[in-house]
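Students often ask why we bother encoding 3D structure as a string. The short answer is that it lets us treat folding as translation between two languages. Here is a chain of 159 residues written in the first language.
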Amino acid sequence: MEKNKKWHIFEDMTAKCYKALDNGNIINECWYSAYDTLLEIIEEEQKKYPGGFGELAEIDERTEYKYNVQGWVDDYFKELNALGDYDRIYKDGLRLLEAFQWAKQSSVQIRMRVVNAMERIGMHDAANRFSEEWVGEEPDDINALFASLIFGKKEKEHA
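And here it is in the second language, the structure alphabet:
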């Protein structure tokens, strides 16, 4: 697989992001740009090599763990949560869910972040629908059932 030149950009950006955090700065545009660059890389690679990055974990495997993508994505969403940027968690979480097949790797963590963000920004009906659809897709997933119970209940309370 030919290396996408944007990996160098992503690597530089993530280093700057972590350095800013180490210096006591909160999440900033660097993190947003790095996330956008990562999704551009994923989209380009999927077009070039259909099925190439079917799962988030495959990125680290195929790049020999050079960029620690899964770890960085987790840090990104943790920082957004600490900042209380639920709108960005919602939007970027959906983008991540849409980017992969999630057949081998669980999407639970991202889905929980998305549905929680929906609730936090007042999208009660949408959070209820999202969690109900999740139950429909994964009826044996206890997290989906939990989300449906919690967010379905909150939706009714706000009605």
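Translate back mentally: The two ends are 52 Å apart (CA to CA). Keep this in mind for the problem set.
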